[in-house]
Amino acid sequence: MEIKFKPIEEEDLEILKHWRNDPEIKVNCNEWRDLNMQDQWVWFDSLTKNINCQMWAIEIEDKKKYRFSMEKEPTIIGACGIVKINWKNLHGEVSIYIGDKNYQGLGLGAKTLSLMEKWAWEDAGLRKLLGFVWEGNEKAANMFKSTGYRKVGYFSKHIWKKGKWTDVIIYEKILGGAC
Ligand SMILES: CC(C)(COP(=O)(O)OP(=O)(O)OC[C@H]1O[C@@H](n2cnc3c(N)ncnc32)[C@H](O)[C@@H]1OP(=O)(O)O)[C@@H](O)C(=O)NCCC(=O)NCCS
After folding, report:
1. Were both Cys, which of 65, 93, 108, 161 would link to 166 (CB 3.0–4.6 Å)?
2. Is 160 exposed, middle or buried (0-12, 13-18, 19+ CB in 10 A)?
3. How far apart are CA 101 and CA 104, in angstroms?
4. Which residues line ligand 1 at a C-beta cut-off of 6 Å?
5. What is the pLDDT of residue 103?
6. Confidence at residue 177, expressed as pLDDT on a 0 to 100 scale
7. What is the band of 46 on the pLDDT scale with cuts at 50, 70, 90?
8. Which pLDDT belongs to residue 178?
9. What is the CA(139)–ligand 1 centre distance, in A?
């Protein structure tokens, strides 16, 4: 199953909101409040203004072939991006969620990461990507480990998750063999 990136459009905001408000996704993301469409509009507007952030919708071209339950399925399965890009020191942070759970655990998270790295290295000239994983998010930890990210440390009891203080594991990957 192959994926491609597309720019996020107005018509994607509703389904992205639905996924971001899913408790299983929200629990491992920075944004912890429920989002409404006003939040989505503010965020959508900020995408065009913020040069330190590049987001995409993740799309499966022939998704109809893999139709699961919804009658009129959107063609996107999640969103991803590189945020907090530091253009002086050439690094940024990975953001990723496969919102449609039918498509989780199929290797698409890892493929998404590779495509983002290609953009970061070949198009944007970045030299390093960082990943931050809330402790207990094994899928995300395995995704970073299996795609060559190095665990560089952790922030101790850094975030409040499910009623307890939780570590945040830090991963990094140097792109294109840069030194
Ligand atoms: C994290 C996420 C992006 C990973 O994408 P994915 O498509 O589900 O993951 P992949 O299928 O590419 O698998 C990546 C690795 O995790 C492993 N994995 C898959 N399902 C797993 C599970 N339930 N538990 C533990 N590891 C799992 C895979 O085996 C693979 O490791 P391997 O290559 O060593 O075998 C996706 O699960 C997701 O969107 N989760 C919710 C949001 C989130 O947590 N985002 C990340 C915040 S840092």
Report:
1. 161
2. exposed
3. 5
4. 25, 28, 96-98, 104-110, 133, 137-140, 142-143, 146
5. 95
6. 72
7. very high
8. 57
9. 3
Q: Whose CA is nearest to atom 19 of ligand 1?
A: 105
Which of helix, strand or coil describes residue 3? Answer: coil
What is the dihedral sign for C-alpha 37, 98, 114, 74? negative
Beta bridge partners of 173: 129
Helix (H) or strand (E) holding 13: helix 13-20
Paired tokens of 144 = 């970073």
User: 32 — alpha (psi -120 to 50), left (phi > 0) or beta?
Assistant: alpha
Question: Tens digits of per-residue pLDDT, 70-116?
Answer: 556 678 999 999 999 999 999 999 999 999 999 999 999 999 999 99
Amino acid identity of residue 50, one-letter, is: N
- How high is the pLDDT of residue 61? 73
What average pLDDT does range 131-154 have in this prediction? 97
| Mean pLDDT calculated for residue range 19-26 | 96
Q: What is the CA angle 20-26-29, rounded to 5?
A: 100
